[in-house]
Amino acid sequence: MRHAGLMKYRLTPYSLVAAKGATGGVEDTWSVGTTVWGSLTSPREGRNAAAGRYEYPVTKVARVDHVAWAVAGNRIVCGSTTYDILGADPDGEVTRLDLKEVTR
């Protein structure tokens, strides 16, 4: 990992999985993936913010090495905060994730 100094947050991915429930119907569950290191910043920082790239509802931007689960519709957890992945863009050696904090 070339960006090890910048990747200081532990991000745990969750993928949405449809499974057969106890009553025979389909239930959505979240499957936990392998925790990875990543960066987590405010969308108001950097050149993309200056260009007007980020608008509500993006609350954080993460960068992770290219991983299969980094797609819109999945979630990541950092500490005690859960984020929906709204978009994922390959950006050189990493994937940039647009995130929205999940509120309960």
Q: Output the CATH topology.
A: Thrombin, subunit H
CATH architecture: Beta Barrel
List low-confidence stretches.
none
Q: What is the number of helical segments per DSSP (H or I, 4+ residues)?
A: 1
Any idea what the radius of gyration is?
A: 15 Å
Query: How does the major sheet shape up?
Result: 6 strands, antiparallel, barrel
Proportion of residues in helical segments: under 10%
Number of strands: 7
Classified in CATH, the superfamily is Bacteriophage SPP1 head-tail adaptor protein
Shape designation: elongated
Question: What's the level 1 CATH class?
Answer: Mainly Beta
Distance between the termini: 34 Å
Structure class = mainly beta
Mean pLDDT: 82
* Topology as a string of helices (H) and strands (E): EEEHEEEE
The percentage of residues in β strands lies in: over 45%
Write a concise keyword list for the protein shown above.
single chain, 104 residues, mainly beta, Thrombin, subunit H, six-stranded antiparallel β-barrel, 1 helix, 52% strand, elongated
Structure description:
- The protein is mainly β and 104 residues long.
- It has a single domain, classed as Beta Barrel (Thrombin, subunit H).
- The chain has one helix at 47-50, and strands at residues 9-20, 26-32, 36-41, 60-65, 75-78, 81-91, 94-101.
- Strands 1-3-4-7-6-5 form a 6-stranded antiparallel barrel.
- The chain is elongated, with a radius of gyration of 15 Å.
- The mean pLDDT is 82.
